[in-house]
Design a protein that fits this description.
This protein is of the alpha/beta class. The protein is built from eight helices and eight strands. An eight-stranded parallel β-sheet has the order 1-8-7-6-5-4-3-2. The protein starts with a strand and ends with a helix. The structure holds D-xylitol-5-phosphate and zinc ion. The site of D-xylitol-5-phosphate (DX5) has 22 residues, from strand 2, strand 8 and helix 7.
Length: 220
């Protein structure tokens, strides 16, 4: 089943519990949680204690996207705070293989992430070890940017490799996705759709989630 993963980065942090309840009621399956350290990306967001506070009120799959240098140092903290999926950047990890092993040792799913200029070949040797591949369609660091269409080719490439090698990872797309380009994104073969400003910047958050899910479900 294809999924919507609204990105908390664009939520009103003063209204987190109620906004997350709205997206959950509207049918979103995942919650995308962007952790930034101000080193790997030029921005700081929030850390594990923040999403730990919403864990007790939400049954959503916590899809944590680490934009931090040497993520292996903090995997345990992120899992203990309630992550169900831990995504890290191949560009940020000294030993991606060990990082995947460490994530899976805690019984959660491991995702590997690539920036717009990183080719699929950079993660090819890890594809049989991950549960998810996250393809960035904007430079990581900020919400509200425009999707870079060339990046969608990598999603199609990953789908092809998955079929050829009989693998089962999900392919997630992150950056600049909204109602206006959702069909194009779905056509590329994405399984999990991240949307930050398109959801939390909307006048009616619940209605936007439902409208996006209506389109996403056509591709199941
Ligand atoms: C960017 C983050 C994204 C961001 C997406 O570094 O990884 O998850 O929240 O925001 P939109 O959907 O507004 O591009
Ligand atoms: Zn993200």
């Amino acid at each position: 089943m294809k999924k919507l993963s609204p990105s908390m980065l664009s939520a009103d942090f003063g209204e987190l519990n109620s906004q997350i309840e709205i997206i959950e009621r509207a049918g979103a399956q995942y919650l995308h949680i962007d952790v930034m350290d101000g080193v790997f990306v030029p921005n700081i967001s929030f850390g594990a204690p923040v999403y730990k506070c919403i864990r007790k009120n939400s049954g959503l799959v916590f899809d944590v996207h680490l934009m931090i240098t040497e993520p292996i140092r903090y995997i345990e903290d992120f899992v203990k705070a309630g992550a169900d999926i831990v995504n890290f950047h191949v560009e940020a990890a000294e030993d991606p293989g060990k990082t995947i092993e460490k994530i899976r040792s805690f019984g959660v799913k491991a995702g590997i992430t690539i920036k717009p200029n990183t080719p699929v070949s950079a993660v090819e040797k890890y594809l049989d070890k991950v549960d998810l591949v996250l393809v960035m369609t904007v430079e990581p660091g900020f919400g509200g940017q425009k999707l870079i269409p060339e990046c969608l080719k990598k999603i199609t490439e990953l789908k092809k490799i998955r079929g050829e090698r009989g693998l089962s990872y999900e392919i997630e797309v992150d950056g600049g996705v909204g109602l206006g380009n959702l069909r194009e994104v779905m056509e590329s073969g994405s399984d999990v759709i991240v949307a930050g400003s398109a959801v939390f910047g909307a006048d009616d958050i619940g209605k936007t989630v439902r409208e996006m899910l209506d389109i996403i479900r056509e591709y199941d």
